[in-house]
Amino acid sequence: MRSLLLLLAASTSLLAQGAPPAGARGARGTAGEPPAAATGTGTGAAAAAPAARQDSAAVRAANTARRADEEAPAVTKHTLKGVADFRYTATTGMMPIRNDQSGETEGNIFYVAYTKDGANPATRPVTFVFNGGPGSSTVWLHMGAFGPKMVKLNADGTNPPPPASYVDNEHTLLDQTDLVFLDPVGTGYSRATSVANGPKFWGLDEDMRSVAEFIRMYLSRNLRWPSPKFIAGESYGTTRAAHLSGYLTDTGISLNGVMLISAVLNFENSRPHRGNDIAYVGFFPSFALTAYYHKKAAPELQRLPIGEFARQAEQFASGEYAAALMKGAALTAAEREAMVTKVARFTGMPEQVVSDGDLRLELGRFSTELLRTQRRMSGRLDSRFTAYMQDPLAGRTTFDPSDASIRETFTPVLNDYVRRELNYKNDNIYYILGGGIGRWRYEEGAYPNVVPSIERAWAKNPDMHVYFAMGYYDMATPYWAVQYTIDHMILDPAVRQSRIHVSHFEAGHMMYIEAASMKKMRADLRAFIDAAVPGR
Predict the structure, then answer these.
(1) Cβ-contact 88, 176 below 8 angstroms
(2) If you ran DSSP here, which 8-state letter would residue 31 be given?
(3) C-beta of residue 137 within 8 angstroms of C-beta of residue 188
(4) Cβ proximity of 236 and 263 under 8 Å
(5) Is the dihedral of CA 146, 151, 154, 157 positive or negative?
(6) Among 76, 87, 69, which Cα is nearest to 419's?
(7) Alpha-carbon distance 440 to 145, whole Å?
(8) Half-sphere exposure of 262 (CA within 13 A, CB side)
(9) What Cα–Cα distance (Å) separates residue 363 from each residue in 312, 400, 501, 510?
(10) Are the beta carbons of 309 and 300 closer than 8 angstroms?
(11) What is residue 38's three-state secondary structure?
C-alpha cells in the first residue's frame, strides 16, 4: 500500500514536483522518449554510454577498487514448503550504483534475491520486483504477495492483533521464476553515499535509470543475460516499470513480460481537478463500487450482481456522465437535476453534495460523506476499510484507514525476517514508506506520463506480455482510469489482442492481501508467465 505504492499513501510525495536540484546531472528527455546517454548520473545502463568511456582505464581501476570495499552479501539456504525437493538460495545484500565517468559509488541498492538451486540460469526466468511511492520500499510485494514468506493477515486483509508474524507463502512465484526484490535508493536500507548524491536518484528518469543499472549489474554478475526476464511493479512502481520497459529495450535488454499491479502510467487520467474532467470519469466507477460495497447505492442497483453493477457504472461514467461534464453550463436545469439524481443513486452521495460539487466528486468529501451517519470514514488505498471519524464535521480524512491497518504489521516482520532468517545485519532504519527520499523531480509543468515508453517497448519487442491487476476499491489508482489509459495506447492491433492481460479484483490497491484475490492473482500469473516464455 503501500505501493503502496503506492505506495501512494503519501500522496504529497507522489505528486511533488520541483526544479532540478542543484548539482543534478544527466540529460533528461520528455517522459517516454529514449533518454539521452547518461552524462554522469551514475545510473545509465552500460549500453547507453559510449564504449570509449566505459572502457577507460580510470573507470576500470576505480571499479576494481570499489568492489574490494563492497560488503559481502548474506547467503542462506532454504526449502520451499509444499513443493517437493524445491531448494533455493536467498542472497541478501547491496548493489553499488556507480558514476559511469568517475567510477565513484553514488548509491547502494538493497536487494533480496531468491534463486532455485540446480536450475539452468539460461532457461530459468528471473523477475525484478519493486513497489512505488515514490518513497516506498518493496516489502509489500516481497512479503505480501510474491516472496516465499508472507506477513500473516486475516483472510479479508485486515491485520490480526500484535505481535505480527509471517508464514510460508503458498502463492509465491518462486516455483516459476527466480525473484529479485529491490529497494530503490532512499527506500528500505538503500542509501545514497552522500547527501549531495541523493537528488541524483530522486526523479522520474533518475530513479528509472538507477534501477536499470541495478538490473544490468545483476544480470552481469550472476550470468543471467540469457534468462527470460520479467519486471513487476506496484503503484508508482508501475510507472517505473513501464518507463523501464522502453529504456531497457533501447539498451538491449528485452523483456518477456511486465506485471503492473494497481497501475498509474498517465497521471492526468487519475488526478481530478477543475479543467481535467476525464479524471472525474475515471474515479466514478470506484466511487460507485465503494457505495455498493457499503450498501449505500440505490436499492434497485444494490440488488445487482457486482459484475453487472460495475458494468452499468462504467457505461454511465463514460457515457451520460462524461457528456454532462463536457456540456458544463450548457446543461439545462432539467438535465442537471436528472444528472444529480443519477450520480447520487450510484454513489450514495446526498444530492445536495453532488449539486454543490457541480456533479464532480472529490475523494476527501466522498470518503467522509459516505458513512457520515455512522461517524466513519472510508479508506483510500482500499475503500472497504473504515475508521472512526474523530471530527464528525470533517470534509476530508485525517489518515487512511487502509494504510493504518497494515503498516504496523509489515514493519516489524521485515526487520525480524532479514535478520533472523536471511542473516543480514543492518542497523539503519528500514524506510518502509517515506522518510528516506527528498523532493521528487518530474518534468516541469506536465503530468508524468510514461505511456510512450511502453508503447516504444512494444513497437520494438511485440512479443512482450503485460499484465494489469486492478482493484475495484482502489482510490489511489482507480481502475477505470487505468482502462482509459490502456484503451488510448498506440499499439499494433495484434499486440493489443494477444499481449495485454487485464484482471479485476474485489479488493483495493493491494488486492493480494485479500486471500481470495491472491489466489486468483496467482492463477492469472501462472498462465501469464507460461504464455510469455515460449516452450515452458
Answers:
(1) no
(2) T
(3) yes
(4) no
(5) negative
(6) 76
(7) 27
(8) 38
(9) 21, 12, 28, 18
(10) no
(11) coil
Q: State the burial class of residue 58 (Cβ atoms within 10 Å of its Cβ: 0-12, 13-18, 19+).
A: exposed
The whole-angstrom separation of Cα 224 and Cα 215 is 10
Separation of CA 408 from chain center: 20
Cell numbers placing 429: 532504519
The answer to whether 212 and 43 are in contact (CB under 8 A) is: yes
Say yes or no to pLDDT of 472 above 90: yes
pTM of the shown model: 0.86
Give the three cell numbers for residue 295: 450498501
Using alpha carbons only, give the angle 98, 100, 104 rounded to the nearest 5 degrees. Answer: 45
Q: Are 76 and 89 within 8 A, CB to CB?
A: yes
Distance of CA 256 to the CA centre of its chain: 19
Q: Please check the confidence at residue 81 and state whether its pLDDT lies above 90.
A: no
d(CA 108, CA 113): 15
The domain ranges of the chain are: 11-269+409-532, 296-398
Tell me the residue type at 190: S
Q: Which residues contact 275 (CB under 8 A, 6 or more apart)?
A: none
Lowest mean pLDDT among 138-142, 301-305, 435-439: 435-439
Give the model's pLDDT for residue 409.
86
- CATH class of the domain comprising 11-269+409-532: alpha beta
Q: What is the mean pLDDT of residues 506-511?
A: 94
Strands (DSSP E) found in 303-461: 376-378, 386-388
Q: For 432-478, where are the alpha helices, taking DSSP H only?
A: 451-460
Q: Which amino acid is at 321?
A: Y
Q: Residue length, the chain?
A: 536
Q: How many helices (H) and strands (E) does the chain have?
A: 18, 14
Interatomic CA distance for residues 404 and 89, integer angstroms: 33
Which residue's C-alpha cell is 547502494? 108
| pLDDT tens, position by position, 346-358 | 999 999 999 999 9
